[in-house]
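Please fill in the sequence for the structure shown.

STRUCTURE ENCODING:
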């Protein structure tokens, strides 16, 4: 005799439980990687139609030029970072990722071993040089270029694959011949503070959206739109852990 097991699903008893259940699904666990890929592709299409495709390195270069102008090392004619669209987009990505980390109670200050910091510094320098030479990073030079059917994107894809292969060989050599680095340290956050993180995340997100409306009131509507795009991209990046370089690796 076959036994049929009937699973009873507990229905939410009130609106609070409905909200809590939905919130747990949104921020309680990591989103699938493929969701991030589809959404990033769609967002880039909208950005193409809005003004220009998604890019990052232009904004970072703008920050660098502004910094060197400020300390009087150079005198380049630049647009101020708070008015340069890619700079605003990058700022939105950082704020959006921070808000998402707070909403998911994952915001925490983490340290890293000295060797990892040195590797990050060297890697960042190489990425900066590469983005200048190729007129784009792995976002603008590869992702957006490929979606625009540019051969430059294909060439950069080949370069990224070669670079990832060399980088993996270096990592294998490090693991084989060098002593392991000590585990990173992190500043522990008490349960009460983590409990308040979602509220802080909502506040950060609202401040970002409010700033977009400020841009609109000052007749900088396009810049405000890029800030909103950045907030959404940052939130998606934190939720999906989407990384183009990791895909090549």
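FILLED IN BY: designer on duty
SEQUENCE:
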């Amino acid at each position: 005799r076959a036994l049929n097991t009937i699973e009873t699903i507990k229905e939410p008893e009130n609106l609070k439980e409905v909200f809590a259940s939905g919130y747990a699904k949104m921020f309680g666990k990591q989103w699938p990687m493929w969701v991030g890929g589809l959404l990033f592709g769609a967002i880039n299409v909208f950005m193409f139609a809005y003004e220009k495709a998604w890019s990052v390195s232009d904004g970072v270069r703008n920050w660098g030029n502004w910094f060197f102008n400020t300390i009087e090392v150079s005198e380049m004619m630049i647009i101020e970072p708070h008015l340069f669209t890619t700079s605003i987009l990058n700022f939105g990505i950082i704020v959006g990722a921070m808000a998402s980390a707070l909403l998911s109670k994952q915001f925490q200050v983490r340290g890293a071993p000295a060797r990892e910091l040195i590797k990050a510094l060297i890697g960042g320098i190489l990425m900066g040089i590469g983005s200048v030479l190729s007129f784009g990073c792995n976002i603008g030079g590869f992702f957006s270029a490929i979606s625009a059917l540019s051969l430059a994107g294909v060439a950069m894809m080949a370069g990224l694959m070669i670079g990832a292969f060399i980088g993996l060989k270096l990592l294998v050599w490090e693991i084989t011949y060098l002593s392991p680095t000590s585990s990173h340290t992190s500043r522990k956050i008490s349960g009460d503070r983590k409990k308040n993180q979602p509220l802080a995340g909502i506040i950060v997100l609202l401040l970002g959206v409010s700033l977009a409306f400020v841009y609109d009131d000052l007749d900088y509507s396009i810049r405000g739109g890029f800030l909103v795009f950045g907030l959404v991209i940052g939130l998606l990046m934190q939720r999906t852990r989407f990384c183009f370089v990791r895909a090549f690796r």
